[in-house]
Specification:
single chain; 10 helices; 8% strand
């Protein structure tokens, strides 16, 4: 599995319009989406979002190609180690290469089906976003294919977000800036339980069985 960083204007627009207003885990607008609404009004169109993005990149002096290069270099320094850790934890590998698209939005969705996730630009802790989103891919190939339908999307979402707390244990040395993966406030108890179970067993199958019971 290889992660390649790239930029696609259509995906940037999609990310800003579809996930800027709210998301599954957060009802609030992102900072950049609020800027878009302040400038273009409520329910901005794709054309308005496109114009806004162009202006935003210029105003913030963001050279997309430079960020693609820098993000790729940063990720490549930890990619092999991260892959080894994730495969050891989940006991699966990812079947396809994945593209990480840059976005001006400060919310980063992903698509298992289309093998991509998004990362914010500019953002000094990019690799932390990448590790978090890829953790969801590993969770899906280990459990999601079977369990999302059994549990329902909401419950599955809670559990896959809870599992990212393991990054703070198993990928502690890889996280940028000494920062932890904090997750969302509503998953705090699940994340604490996940940490406890992991410290007891170090077995992802045992943890999952306990969390879904």
């Amino acid at each position: 599995m290889k992660v390649t960083f790239d930029y696609n204007k259509e995906k940037d627009i999609w990310c800003l319009l579809k996930f800027g207003k709210n998301s599954t885990n957060s009802p609030s607008q992102t900072k950049v989406y609020k800027m878009l609404v302040d400038e273009k009004g409520e329910n901005p169109t794709e054309d308005e979002a496109s114009i806004f993005i162009d202006k935003y990149l210029v105003d913030k002096k963001i050279n997309i190609q430079e960020y693609i290069t820098n993000y790729q270099k940063d990720w490549d320094t930890i990619s092999d180690q991260y892959k080894k850790v994730a495969e050891r934890v989940f006991k699966v590998s990812l079947p396809e290469d994945i593209t990480a698209y840059l976005t001006v939005n400060d919310r980063c969705p992903y698509s298992i089906k289309d093998n991509f996730f998004l990362v914010s630009v500019p953002y000094s802790l990019m690799r932390n976003i990448a590790m978090h989103e890829l953790w969801h891919f590993y969770t899906w190939y280990k459990f999601g294919i079977v369990w999302e339908e059994k549990l329902g999307k909401q419950k599955y979402n809670e559990l896959k977000e809870a599992l990212t707390v393991l990054l703070n244990i198993e990928c502690k040395d890889l996280l940028a800036g000494g920062k932890q993966d904090n997750g969302y406030p509503q998953h705090k108890e699940l994340r604490e339980k996940t940490t406890q179970l992991w410290n007891e067993s170090k077995d992802i199958d045992i943890i999952w069985t306990q969390l879904v019971s």
